[in-house]
Amino acid sequence: MKNFKKLTIVLIILTIVVAVFAFAGCTKPAKRVAPDLNFDGLGSKPNDEVAAKSIPVDKSKIKLSSENTTDPEVLASIKYLLQLSNQNNIDIDFYAAAAYGTGDAYIPSAKIVGSMDTREWRIYDNGEYFFDSYGMIVEGYTIKSDGSKGSVMDSTLSILSNILNFADRVYSPDSQTFYKADNGKGAEDSFSKYPSLDAITYKKPKITASSLEDYIKNNYYRTSFKEYTSDNLEYEKAILNGSLVYDEVNGIYTLECEINCQDEIALELSIASMKESSGTDIFKYAKKSLKIEIWDCGLIKSYINENVWEATLVPDLLKLKGSSENYYEQLFSYNKEDIQKMLIPEDIKSTWTK
Question: Cβ(135)–Cβ(6) under 8 Å?
C-alpha cells in the first residue's frame, strides 16, 4: 500500500543529512526478524456470508495468460480485477490487513546504504477504523572500494535510528473524524513482538483530529481511506505488461503486472506524496511491479508491491542523487472469527476519546 512512503523518501533524505552532519550518540539498529503475517486466519478465504456482499468476478471479462504479455485483452482483465477488488475493499463492512516492508536506500556519492523494515496493520469494522504502522532502522553501512560492507559510525546510526524509527497510529470511531498520534518510541526488539499491540510504546503522543475529507487529501488517497491502491487505473496505459492465471481448486486469480512509470499519470498521487515528504521535485519511479491474489468473489487476498525510485535530494544545496529498492507485502481477511488477535483492546480505543 501507499503508506510505504515513510520507508522510502524520508530514509534517503535523512541518510544524506546524517552523512554530512553527524551527531554524537549511540543507538543500535533494531533486530531484523522474519515477518509472520499468517496469524489467526489472515489471508483466509471469505466465508459465504461475506462473499455474498461483494461483487464477484465476471468471468466473461477475463482473458488469462500464464506468460507475461502486452495483449490488450489480458491487460484489460488485470485492470478490471484491480478496480473490482479495490472497490469491494471500499464497500465491505469489515476487513483486517497486516503488512511488512523492507527497503534499502543508496547514496552513491557518499557510499552509504541505509536499510529499514516496516510493519503495519489495519482494521475496519462498520465505521470504526484503526491503523497502526511503525518502522525501524535495521542496518546502516558504507560500501568499500572492493564492494564489501564497511561499518558506519555510531553517531550516524544514532541519528538514523532516533529520527527514522517511527510509529503512526490512527483511530476513527465513525469514519468521519480521524484521530492521529505519531512519533511513538520503539523498543530495540519491537519487530520480534510483531504483531503485538505492545510493540511500540507511546510517550504521551500529541493527538490531532481531522475530517474524513482532510484525512483522504492529506494522505493522498484517491477516493477512500479503505482502498488498497491509489494508482490511477482509469489511465488507459496504466499497465505495461502482465500475466493472469486462475486456480480453479481454490478460486484465486493471481495477476502480475508492471505499472507504467514513464509518464507518471498512473502514479500521480504516490509521486505527489513522495515530493511533499521530500521537499524536492526531482523524483521519479524507475519501476513498480505488482503481484496480487484475488478471490473469485472479488475480494483481495494478498498484495505485493516491489518498486525502485530515483531522486535528487536537496537540489539547491548538495544535488546528491540517490535511489531506493523496496518490497511491501500485505495480507487481507474478512472473517471476524478468524482474527481474534487483531481485535482492538478497549483501553487503546479509550485513549483517543479522552
Answer: yes
Q: Is the dihedral of CA 148, 149, 151, 156 positive or negative?
A: positive
pTM here? 0.87
Rg of the chain in Å (alpha carbons): 21
Read off the DSSP letter of residue 217.
H
**Residues contacting 147, CB < 8 A, separation 6+:** none
Cell matching residue 263: 509518464
Question: What are residue 178's DSSP bridge partners?
Answer: 210
Answer for the pair 25, 154: CB distance below 8 angstroms, yes or no: yes
Beta carbons of 142 and 127 less than 8 angstroms apart: no
DSSP 223: S
Rounded to whole angstroms, the Cα distance separating 324 from 113 reads: 9
Distance CA 168, CA 215 (A): 14
- Among candidates 172, 85, 169, which has minimal Cα distance to 125? 172
**How many CB atoms are closer than 10 A to CB 211?**
11
The model's pLDDT over 64-101, given as tens digits with 9 standing for 90+, comes to 999 999 999 999 999 999 999 999 999 999 999 988 88
Assigned C-alpha cell, 110: 557518499
